[in-house]
Amino acid sequence: MALLTFKGGVHPYDGKELSKDRPITPCPPKGDLIYPLSQHIGAPALPVVKKGDRVLAGQKIAEAGGFVSAPVYASVSGIVKSIESHMTPSGNKVDSIVVEDDGMYEEAAPFPVKPLAEMSRDEMIQLIREAGVVGLGGAGFPTHVKLSPKEPDKIDTILVNCAECEPYLTSDYRLMMERPEKIIGGLQVILSIFDRAAGYLCIEDNKPEAIEILRKACENESRIQVKVLKTKYPQGAERMLIYAATGRKLNSSMLPADVGCIVDNCDTVCSIYDAVVLGRPLLSRVVTVSGDGVVSPGNFECKIGTNVNVILEAAGGLKEGAEKVIAGGPMMGVAMFDLDVPTVKTTSAITCFLHDDVKSSPVTACINCGRCVKACSEGLVPARLSQFAEKGDLESFEKWHGMECVECGCCSYVCPAKRPLAQMIRNTRRIAMAERKKQGGK
Predict the structure, then answer these.
(1) Rounded to an integer, what distance in angstroms lies between the CA atom of residue 401 and that of residue 116?
(2) What pLDDT was estimated at residue 438?
(3) Nearest C-alpha neighbor of 55 from the set 71, 75, 37
(4) Burial level of 213, CB count in 10 A (0-12/13-18/19+)?
(5) What residues does each domain of the chain span?
(6) What is the pLDDT of residues 41-64, one digit of tens each?
(7) Among 75, 260, 271, 425, which is least packed by CB within 10 angstroms?
């Protein structure tokens, strides 16, 4: 039987052997913890504490600033030192709550919960909203919004993204290996919300041990199955995953719900379990620290707000002469120019390299080889789109379907001229979206 996949994509060196066999290890925080109010797509959270307040671990310190927003919780007990602007791993400065950790880890009471069978759909979604759960695969979209489609009865497929196709990342793999019951439990919650749907755990075939563990974990679940996908980047991208698992297609103007699907990352699904079954808000996440630029790669459970330098220290620190640190993986992550930043909800990895291959590779003229076209999972012509981007020609950029780009970076990866195709296209998409917003969304 052929493995499930999509057209295009690439097969980069995945580097997963560096950390995949390293169990999840707690990473105690040190010093102040910083909680940015924008750790998600949508409106920033609004502080509900002030300087001088004492907070407990699991206490809400910022409430959702709208429907498309998410609250923020203190992950330690301590005193609120300030509310001020701080840098995030993405390089943006946003308003943040600074808490001085008192080292006591006194906890607030969990949310009141009931057995799943006694909860309504609205009660489950409200718990997920209240817990501050967002997409932990990197996008940061508030999960309660995703679980509130206009026509819920048309949702027939729930896909749990266990692909983890980004090179070097193994945090999801370790969750599959160590906490499969939480993944299954979180999926059961989603299936309780969408009682006409079937659930699928979508995982690439380069993770045979995890495949067997998940199959065993769901062997008595009539509505849950494992779908094995071909190992290829970007298999875990939402559109690619939906097509590979169901054969359904969607474009940039559509949501997964438009084709009857809901897609959630496996770490997100674990957080759904914590919220609805255990009554716990999102306080921590698993972060992979890997690459040839760090002494001891591994997977660390980090409290939200922990300084990145503390996590690097837990991994033995950077090797002497390390040139590049990326928030996330090498394909879609963001190069960091300052490590004095907090872990946020979407911090899936810190990838460290001895050499900055991108910086050391000279950019030359396009040779019209067509490799970027072959690699593009959306069937675009990245070389042409980058030309429009350079000229600021938004009309031609959109005419050539530039808005359909999923920003996976495959085109830049295969380009022999080392042209920053994905970066140019990404920036132009941002400009085009801003222009649409100015014109009232047209």
Answers:
(1) 44
(2) 82
(3) 75
(4) middle
(5) 20-102+282-353, 113-278, 371-438
(6) 999 999 999 999 999 999 999 999
(7) 260
pLDDT at 10: 97
Residues 6+ apart with CB under 8 A from 336: 89, 91, 308, 325, 326, 327
pLDDT in tens, 323-373: 999 999 999 999 999 999 999 999 999 999 999 988 888 999 999 999 999
Type of residue at 178:
E
Amino acid at 392: G
Q: Burial, 57: exposed, middle or buried (Cβ in 10 Å; 0-12, 13-18, 19+)?
A: buried
pLDDT score, position 2: 59
- Residue 395 confidence (pLDDT): 95
Mean pLDDT calculated for residue range 261-279: 97
Residues in the chain: 442
Residue 315 predicted with pLDDT over 90: yes
Band (pLDDT 50/70/90 cuts) for residue 441 is low
Exposed / middle / buried, residue 228 (Cβ in 10 Å: 0-12, 13-18, 19+): middle
Q: Residue 414 to residues 299, 302, 404: CA-CA distances in angstroms?
A: 29, 34, 19
CATH of domain 113-278: 3.40.50.11540
